[in-house]
Amino acid sequence: MLNVLTNVITVVAADSSLSEDWPDPGRFVIRRSGNLDALTISFTLSGTATSGMDYVTPAGTVVLPFGAEEVAVSVTPLNDSDVEGVETITLTLGNSVPYQVGSASSATLNLSDAVAGKPSAKPAARFLTQATFGPAPLENARVMDLGYSAWIEQQFLRGPNLHLPIVQVWQEELKTSTSNSSAVGSEQRMEAFWRQTMRTDVDSDPLRQRMAFSLRQIMVISDRMESLAADHRGMTSYYDTLLTSSFGTYRQLLENVTRHPWMGLYLSSLRNRKANPSLNRFPDENYAREVMQLFSIGLWLLNPDGTQKLSNGSDMGPDGVVIPAGEPIPTYG
Fold first, then answer.
1. What domains are defined for the chain?
2. What is the pTM for the complete model shown?
């Protein structure tokens, strides 16, 4: 004889914290035990928050598909600009013939006000995902307390956590066990990188570490070049130059990078001498091209969104010739 099980329905708050300054919805999850047939489940919403003013009103029913064990009901917050404190949204399951309601028949979400200049936990975490290598509890709390601008200003005041001192300590340790004075390799260099960039203590500098990493994608050197790979202390020293230059002017950054010997090795500007036609001597222009093409102005004038500026038919090129309408405008000739 076929044993037909009774569907027993319960509800929990899966994401119980909402804020009016962040569109991420809260979630109730309705679960069932018993049968696996499709169900239409009814529910009501109550609490101190006002439906349609504090949050988008979901439909009063949800379909649990055949074979599914749970279904979510999302509640999206609305920013009404009123100061109301923490409000509640409670979902209560309705009774119906196809199922029974279990002991967990209701669940509650908490909705917080938007506070001007003070982000809640979720937008603070989103901000740190962009400004650092990811949110950590202590840093998230700082952003929530200070606000975005004040947090950035505080980061500007923090000194850099350099990578080279860590590598140098390991170098001294390795010298006692090997005759190779350049025993530190890429593994130790990367270990120093992760130690400093992932710091979460009160002396960490996450914005500077992320900024240096971003600059490293522009001011490129590479240990694929044998002369640079021979000593990773030089590679680490170069990265520390980006760290110390992260919050200054771009002009000073260019000078610091230009004067670093590892950049001189990588782009062949080390010991580069000026032209002397009488000696048939001409300078290596490799680095000069890279400064213009990659490190600064680029090949073409750009709009703020990164697209190429196009001539209107009266723009003059670097050579003094009018550029036809619709053509890109070069930065130099």
1. 7-112 (2.60.40.2030), 158-266 (no CATH), 297-333 (no CATH)
2. 0.77
